[in-house]
From TrEMBL:
GO BP, one annotated term: response to nutrient
Protein name: 3-methyl-2-oxobutanoate dehydrogenase (2-methylpropanoyl-transferring)
Residue ranges of domain Transketolase-like pyrimidine-binding in the record: 1-108
Matching SUPFAM superfamilies: Thiamin diphosphate-binding fold (THDP-binding) (SSF52518), TK C-terminal domain-like (SSF52922)
Residues making up the signal peptide according to the UniProt record: none
InterPro entries, alphabetized: THDP-binding (IPR029061), Transketo_C/PFOR_II (IPR009014), Transketolase-like_Pyr-bd (IPR005475), Transketolase_C (IPR033248)
Organism encoding this protein: Erythranthe guttata (Yellow monkey flower)
């Protein structure tokens, strides 16, 4: 009694057999009980996203499936410091949380992580880079690619503001809205297929909130509407050059 439940799915691609229990049971347990019970602070960890050689069973980004479910929180870190602080916040949150871990963090990310206990707030986006011409929004591993595109865009005189959502549900609309009201433009990028991806929800929400401030249509640079390929992964991914082209197109609209 009193312990926190932490489940680990080897790859996010394998989470679907548990979909019914997560969506129809865990997500609704508090609501069904009239707030008398929760799921024991259930946190589900799952590595997600491209890894360079994973193919269609080890590279998917299924975050949008869970963002559609009331009662679940969805959190994705971009680096080791965030991974620890956000994971501890998820574990101590009474609501069920799906915590997606970018696979590249396991092998490529090197960073000093404090040994002490610390938590990072959920549903609070971080402005990684301030700018004035266009707002870029992303999460997880994609932020490294987006930051590279921002650096290249700066060489052409384009000032990019880059925002890490960290929490997709519930996401920090206010921070993104304030940024878009300043820049007048928005680009969202994620590895998941573009159709039905969470970028579409961000786009629709910001159009509702910032319509009269927008100088161009909202741009999305995402994965393709195909199964995740193996040898064609470089063509599938939303790369630095694809993002850079979209930045230039949006600013020059």
């Amino acid at each position: 009694m009193g312990n926190r439940a932490i489940a680990e799915i080897q790859f996010a691609d394998y989470i679907f057999p548990a979909f019914d229990q997560i969506v129809n049971e865990a997500a609704k347990f508090r609501y069904r009980s009239g707030n008398q019970f929760n799921c024991g602070g259930l946190t589900i960890r799952a590595p997600y996203g491209a890894v360079g050689h994973g193919g269609h069973y080890h590279s998917q980004s299924p975050e949008a499936f869970f963002c559609h479910v009331p009662g679940i929180k969805v959190v994705i870190p971009r680096n080791p410091q965030q991974a620890k602080g956000l994971l501890l916040s998820c574990i101590r949150d009474p609501n069920p949380v799906v915590f997606f871990e970018p696979k590249w963090l396991y092998r490529l990310a090197v960073e000093e992580v404090p040994e002490k206990d610390y938590m990072l707030p959920l549903s609070e986006a971080e402005v990684i880079r301030e700018g004035s011409d266009i707002t870029l929004v992303g999460w997880g591993a994609q932020l490294l690619i987006m930051e590279q595109a921002c650096v290249e865009a700066e060489k052409d005189g384009i000032s990019c503001e880059l925002i890490d959502l960290k929490t997709l549900i519930p996401w920090d609309k206010e921070t993104v809205e304030a940024s878009v009201n300043k820049t007048g433009r928005l680009l969202v990028s994620h590895e998941a297929p573009i159709t039905g991806g969470f970028g579409a929800e961000i786009s629709a929400s910001i159009v509702d909130r910032c319509f009269l401030r927008l100088e161009a249509p909202v741009a999305r640079v995402c994965g393709l509407d195909t199964p995740f390929p193996l040898v064609f992964e470089p063509f599938y991914m939303p790369t630095k050059n694809k993002i850079l082209d979209a930045i230039k197109s949006t600013v020059g609209y």
